[in-house]
Design a protein that fits this description.
single chain, 401 residues, alpha+beta, FAD/NAD(P)-binding domain, D-Amino Acid Oxidase, Chain A, domain 2, 10 helices, 33% helix, 27% strand, globular
Length: 401
């Protein structure tokens, strides 16, 4: 079977669906096809995150992360209201445990203000305790713009609107090859071949592979990191009032173990960050020889490991030892005990790493020919998805004119 379209989008996570919605909204007559390899949308990064609507506190002012998170956050809140999607603008507190963390807390406050976060409130130890009685800290930063939502439901709503406007979604359609053919791209999926004038790659954990298949030579590799969570037992969930975060390590893109109230009322604690042996490795036993070989033969991985091997060992220790995981949580909330928690879910972050061993910090969206490739879109991509979709739509419109 062979079909043709004006535009093909690979990847049915929230960024792919937001992009599809943005483009078809601008061009109702455009024939757009979205491919998702799983049986349902939002099966991987979108469906395995903690549902936080990020405020934009952490990101370098002027970066793509900072600008799209700020506009995307408010667009997402409006989208949820318009389509009756349950959400809460619950706020979060970032906690400094000791004096060594105060300069980093100052920097977060400065960045937040520069990124347009009005209403940030510095908390003294006593003010922090009034808001979060069970947290130990000498200072805090209240971020009122932070919220929570079910991103799977958001994605499904985006997809439904896209389809209602004439868009086509093919589920259970893994792409095996992308090639250039004269003035179009041939997209092969099992026994089918699709032809498209333009292509957008939102393949997440496999974005680098799709790009290479399409003839690009990106100077990066997707390295999968698994984040594992514990869940509070229902009778202990009252320990957490807001979202509670530590002051993050500025050298790492991860935010550290934290406490998250979910939209369904449960409370999660975590995650850690360990190397996954499979790009979709949600369990310690998940291994793919191909994925592992991709990681271990990439020079950038070994340069990264040389810098952070000690951190990596600590993270893996928390993966295998509940007591070590609980100990890391007790730094923020001393009264937590192992019996308060049960094993929760996990997610895998598609982290792009370059050949020098540097984790790509900003979103990475590259254009080649009539293709747009989203090569690095970890958190806060879900928060920023509507703005990322508009950003990609502008690039696509420039390509197909």
């Amino acid at each position: 079977m062979s079909t043709s379209a004006d535009l093909a989008i690979i990847g049915g996570g929230i960024v792919g669906c937001a992009t599809a919605l943005a483009i078809i909204s601008r061009n109702p007559g455009l024939k757009i096809v979205l491919f998702e390899k799983e049986m349902q949308l939002a099966s991987h990064q979108t469906g395995h995150n903690s549902g936080v609507i990020h405020a934009g506190l952490y990101y370098r002012p002027g970066s793509l992360k900072a600008t799209t998170c700020a506009s995307g956050r408010e667009a997402l809140y409006r989208f949820c209201v318009e389509h009756d999607i349950p959400h809460q603008r619950c706020g979060k507190v970032v906690v400094a445990v000791d004096e060594t963390e105060l300069p980093a807390l100052d920097e977060l406050e400065r960045r937040g203000q520069e990124n347009g976060l009005n209403g940030l409130q510095r908390l003294t130890a006593s003010e922090l305790q009034k808001r979060e009685p069970h947290v130990r800290g000498i200072a805090g930063l209240l971020v009122p713009q932070t919220g929570i939502v079910d991103y799977v439901r958001v994605t499904q709503t985006m997809a439904g609107i896209f389809q209602s406007r004439g868009g086509v979604i093919h589920l259970h359609t893994p792409i095996t090859q992308v090639s250039r053919d004269s003035d179009s791209y041939l997209i092969r999926a099992r026994n089918s071949t699709f032809r498209a004038r333009s292509l957008v790659n939102c393949a997440g954990l496999h974005a680098d592979r799709v790009a290479i298949s399409a003839g690009m030579h990106p100077d990066l590799r997707i390295i999968p990191f698994r984040g594992e969570y514990y869940e509070f037992k229902p009778e202990r969930s009252s320990l957490v009032k807001h979202l509670i975060y530590p002051v993050p390590d500025p050298q790492m893109p991860f935010l550290g173990v934290h406490f998250t109230r979910m939209i369904d009322g449960t409370v999660e604690a975590g995650p850690n960050a360990v190397l996954a042996w499979r790009r979709e490795g949600y369990h310690r036993s998940d291994i793919s020889l191909r994925d592992l070989a991709d990681t271990l033969t990439f020079r950038g991985f070994w340069k990264l490991s040389a810098r952070f091997w000690r951190v990596g060992l600590e993270e893996h220790g928390r993966s295998f030892s509940k007591s070590l995981f609980v100990k890391s949580l007790q730094r923020l909330m001393p009264e937590i005990r192992s019996d308060d928690l049960i094993r929760g879910g996990s997610g895998v972050r598609a982290q792009a790493v370059d050949r020098k061993g540097r984790m790509i910090d900003d979103f990475c969206i590259q254009t080649e020919g009539r293709m747009v490739h989203v090569l690095n879109a970890p958190s806060p991509a879900a928060t920023a998805s509507l703005s990322i979709g508009e950003h990609i739509a502008e690039r696509v419109m420039a390509l197909i004119k």
